[in-house]
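Q: Fold this one first, please.
A: Sequence and structure below.
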Amino acid sequence: MRILFDTNIILDVLMDRKPHSDAATKLFDSVETGSIAGYICATTVTTIHYLASKAIGKDRAKLELEKLLSLFEVAPVNRAVIEMALRNRMADFEDAVLCEAARHVQVNGIVTRNVRDFKKANINTYNPQELLEVVRLHS
């Protein structure tokens, strides 16, 4: 199962944001064991670097990103993705970019804590608990 992780799920793990980090960490474990092929959007990488640099410094932020990149593939944000996001009917452009990047790399869905923000997305969307159940059923 190929899943794109929304930025909020990545931040839940990296910042240990309780209670959300528990389910998010289990999903990271599923990526590590190969139950999920994990993807992150290129915009997530830049957002994580920016926030981590402010919180823990640039050098440590780079180390954390290297760990993240050893686990996840990156869904590119290119002209085609941006043009599709501009035509997307979603209210939030950032979410539209994420959705179109996910479609571009042909994932099976997106995991996010903001499922309602993706109502108009033309891709399956899961909250972390839902995705954990799907993974459990397919194991």
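Q: Good. Now the second chain.
A: Here it is, same layout.
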Amino acid sequence: MTVRICFKGLTPGRPLVMFAWAAFANDPVVSANTTVHFGRELADVFQEHWTVVPEVGDCDVVVFPHGYEDGPETARVADAARTAGKPCVFFSHDERLPPSRLSYGTLYRGSIFTRLPHERAHPVFIHDIRLETDGAAGDPVPKSGKPVVGFCGFVGTPLSRALLRLVGAGQKVAGLSFRAKVLSALRRDARVDCRFVERSKYLGAAPLSAFRRDHPLADEREAFLSNLLACPYGLAMRGKGNHSVRFYEILSAGRIPLFVNTGCVLPLESEIDWKSHSVWVEDHDLPKIGERLVAFHSRITDTDFIELQRRIRRLWVDRLRPEPFFTHVFRRVASGAPAP
């Protein structure tokens, strides 16, 4: 099924969301000021699943091609789709975006603090960890006596967090403070083998180093990958936004997320049983995180432990990469079904 897309409100040269960039990646006029690190695979297959049409009346789905913001521009796009009787989809990667006042259509966001009926979560799109590690990712880690949990990431120090608060980065401070609290809770449980690397600064560009060995952050990325692959459980919790990039890296690597839920909205939540693909701990149960992990580890058999890691890797490959995710979303919406 080829879905006809109308990119309503397209402004050449203005930054595009990933899906729109994939449609116009080879048009230097339209995509000139867009930087998309993880969208090339989608651009390469775009024409296999979608075709671009210029008029709303001729399309199956209307898509706003730029990042969503409340205002007259997005309101006009929503009104045009509603008048034509077409489904309408918006995207936002802005972690600071407040709850939206969208009157019609669906907004896919990476981070959602306050759930609204018209908002959905999209995955954080990443490079395949298997490609970064020459195929090592996806090979399950056998079950050991103790649960082994890995974490390598930005936590900061009490001083650095205080300085961030002074410059108005309250949301980031909240995430970093919560991370420190989670790490401390796990370390207090002697039954858990904690392999934590706490970094004092943000290294968000580090994933790019995997494809450029001369990148100044290449060693840091290598340390992250080594930690990720050595541990069957990977700790995932919010950062600045109410989502976790690390969560998707853990899935891609075929490891088991130890996921601390802070009211997150996960992608395809009506279709994926996320609790069966993770060790799930609510934030209000944080003092019992070690107990929950140990109980899970004690119950699962050696065979099921291996199979769970394989099932998690398959979930990421089949549902959470750009191609399968967008293909599923737009086919569903075009068919008249609710946005997944």
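Q: Anything worth noting on the second one?
A: The chain has two domains: 3-125+321-334, 129-318.
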